[in-house]
Specification:
The two termini are 30 Å apart. The chain has 144 residues and is of the alpha/beta class. It has helices spanning 14-25, 92-103, 139-142, and strands at 7-10, 28-33, 50-56, 62-67, 82-87, 107-114, 120-125, 131-136.
Length: 144
């Protein structure tokens, strides 16, 4: 089965970001550093940078991330690209909790509350500059 997963780029904060996402979303986190894979980066100051990190949550979500070594051009989180966490009424508590956890140290653009179209909706930028959107359908919005 094909999946579409966000792959986030950081200068040097991938581990910290992935650990926050794990604390908020749950799941299993695997991190490979440049130092754990010899020959990928010979800079001794960058051996602890994340070459590839992957969080697999119990609900089937997958977030991947990596740090950018000095030998490569850094591309910051792109304006206009948003990680969307969506669900149905059974997911409300999980998604509301994720919104709360990811808003800590970040900037809430729209509070997570009932929207005019009937869903619960909110937006924020987390403390790492990653934009998030949250949407939870309700029994009423599912019948519209």
């Amino acid at each position: 089965m094909a999946r579409l997963n966000p792959y986030l780029s950081f200068r040097s904060e991938a581990r910290e970001a992935l650990e926050l996402y794990k604390s908020v979303l749950g799941g299993d986190l695997r991190i490979d550093t440049y130092g754990s894979l010899p020959g990928l980066n010979d800079n001794p100051d960058e051996q602890d940078l994340v070459m590839h990190g992957q969080l697999e949550t119990p609900r089937g979500l997958c977030i991947m991330a990596a740090d950018t070594p000095s030998s490569q051009p850094y591309v910051a989180p792109t304006s206009g690209v948003t990680v969307a966490l969506t669900g149905d009424p059974a997911d409300h508590e999980y998604i509301a909790s994720a919104f709360e956890g990811l808003s800590d140290g970040g900037e809430v653009t729209l509070p997570f509350e009932k929207a005019p179209w009937g869903d619960y909706f909110g937006q924020l930028t987390d403390k790492f500059g990653v934009a998030w959107m949250f949407d939870v359908g309700t029994e009423d919005s599912a019948t519209q």
